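the two lines:
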Amino acid sequence: MVSEAAVTKVTGASVVIVGGGVTGLSAAWWLAQSGVDVLVIEKGIVGWEASGRNGGGCGHVTSPLYPEMLRLWPIMDQLLGYPTEFSANRIHLAVTEEQLAVQNRSAAAVKRQGYRCELLDQKQISELVPLAGDNVVGAHFYHFGGHANPHRTVQGYAWGMQDHGGRLMQHCAVTGFRTEGERVVGVETERGLLGCDQLVIAAGPHTGRLSTMLGQEVPLASARAEMIVTEPLPLMAYGGVEGNGLHGRQTLRGNLAFGGGPHEWLELSDRGLSANPTTPLMAHIGRRLVEMMPKAAHASIIRSWAGVIENTPDGRPVIDRLSTFPNVVVATMSSVGFGLSPSSGRAIRDVVVDGICSFADISSFRLARFARLEPDWRELQGWVSLAMEEAP
Amino acid sequence: MLIDENPVTFKTMGNEVPLHYGQGMSGVARNRNAMIEAFVTLEPLIQVAFDAGVDVRLGTACWGLYANGPGVHWLPGTVAGLADQERGWLIGAEHVIVAAGRRDIGLGFPGWEKPGVMGATAAVTLATRFGALNPRRVVILGTSAEALSAAAALRDAGIEIAAIVEQATEHVGPDHLVTELLAGGCELLTHCVVREALGGESVEGVLIAAVDKAGRAVGEERRIDCEGVVLAVGTTPVVDLLAALGCHIAFQPERGGYAPVVDAGQRTSVYNIFAVGDCAGIWPAKSLDRRIAAGEGLRAVGAILGDAENFDSAEGLDPDRPVYDLSAYRMGWVRASVIEARGGFHVCQCEEVTAREILEVRPPRYLGWQADRRNDRSLSSLLDKGPPNPDQVKRLTRAGMGPCQGRRCREQIAALLALQATAPLAAIPLAGYRAPVRPLPLAIASQLPESADQARHWELWFGILSQWQRPSEVPEFYTVSTNEATAAAVNGERGGSD
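prediction for all of em together
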């Protein structure tokens, strides 16, 4: 019997990217724009995991990728050819003196880095954040950063990449790798062998497992994050309003989409979780939202969602070549992937094509920093899954 | 404890929750006490349960079921989220029997947003339980056993049935029901669709046209005066709570579409969760004889008590063999009524998305995105070996994303995607359900108590201090022990997060 793989003409690409999340797709879009023959393989649907399940914030001011991200976001719609719903600027609200003190320190820190940030007075706050109440003790306006729509952006990267000749295979899980000497020459998948000159693994939580198969583990732990979304409310001047332990935004449609809370660490199976269940944490997010925006108390929560998000031990990204197979680049943004995606994809493109990032020093993303990591680092940091009770 | 959201308030009905009321309720539905009294009077078992010591909570919605599983480990056990008009709270449960009933699938046509276009279950509930149905003369769409039963129930409640409209060449429900309705003077129009609902403030009439085999309107349009249009082209089990919890839900035409997979004891794939009544499957015999649903309840009790013998019920263990192709029937309706409609209208009324915008995967109009060469994407560009996924389409078009939580459009969207992909309905995955499965005001949700421990450990993001270090501060090697030594020095300066 002839297998399906043998009769289906499955070819590889110069660069194969494992993972159709925001990081892999941005890298693919940048590579395709450079004329590189690129193929993204995704076990499910693009942006189905953490890339589509975040708050849409474009932050992380201390990242070396941040300045380039700031440059790119305002022109992403134009560059991609698809709308991302990027909206500039952020407002941080404080409803306790303690929160205000923390925000004052953050504001001072970003000012030292040369960014514009100002304290708003009560009149400005009530004009800019009409959903806030009398309990607000202060707010800062950040004249940089912003937020965008993760779903639309992920699809924009995918379509943009395809417009430049890149290819995408969805519903195609990786089962193994084919190697020759110190090179990975192909990716074994459910739909056959896909040859490659270079390989990028940007598979979110699965990057750890896949890199282990190639002899050098990217240490990762996965946790669940949850968000809620309300029915639409009248648009505020700036949607990027957050505080009181919550991150998120008012969408351009008017929904309040916010998240936060404890993040439960999880064991991950090979294919990930079949569902991403939410928990009653929804209500506790809701309480903090009402505290922050009391005038939204009448609005209904109409959905909640959860996603599984990976972190490295120090919470910083890895974008590096494997020492075991130098034609493999591993990439994880360690839970801050969406906002930085315009520049993370460019950095990965640079590493793949030129061997080095052209616009930022990303040596702090090197994998070798974990060479002396304790084997039981997850337990030491308390990043372990609670014991599961057996069903009767 | 017995929880039922009914009777829901006038305001809740106005939000099309939990049924498609289509603003067809009369002022009677504003009288809370009268509604509760009517509800209790019509179902004597409520009093029986109360007398037996059951904690009966009417007007209380269950908006979520939660349990530990592969993706959640921290819950104390199975938990139900409840809310009434003023209060929200959680209760634990060793077993949960879900008897959440049925819901009508929506069907659009120009003017279907007008007050008076409503689901059959909503119309029958208002008319027969509460005497609160506004329209006195209606046109009914659909001829399944459920549709014909609804027509008979409305007629018995004094509502005039102007006509029954069927897109297929002949009725699909039992002949005797058709004969009985026709004998009463009602007209049956097969191979016809509603081209438009007419009226100013509310429905005043419909334009009906014949359709050809491809679902295209042919010939003259005919006006029928009526005050309501009752959508009875399909009923579907209400699986929202079960699906959101993670129970296995499969497309089962013999059970009315997507329904939970249950065993002989009505147990779902989640061990302590049971489904009984219409939410476990809808078929003609069950719609006509309530002893079948009661038998399911009995079997669930037997399974919980480990006493199948004394709680056995011979009533209707297995669904009827389907007498028509439910998938083709529903797709036929959507093709003739929605795709072949003479004008654009909003399939998703909340987010105002048309069928064309869904099939072309257009960004929402409020973005003001101008079409250009590089934006001529369509559904086919999303597909790759997999079937079209309604959740993916929802995220890009917003169809099904509004406050009615997709109750009026999700089956239509599934049918649109199936038609476009030339696949049966069974091939289209069930669009996701997530808690809260009823709109839950923030003011009520926020009442749920939070443990002091959780409040203490609340994090905006993961709370990893080294995540916010400047690159220059990153040590050559990261180890947990050296990090702990330096973590204290990080002063909490944070930029932001995703």
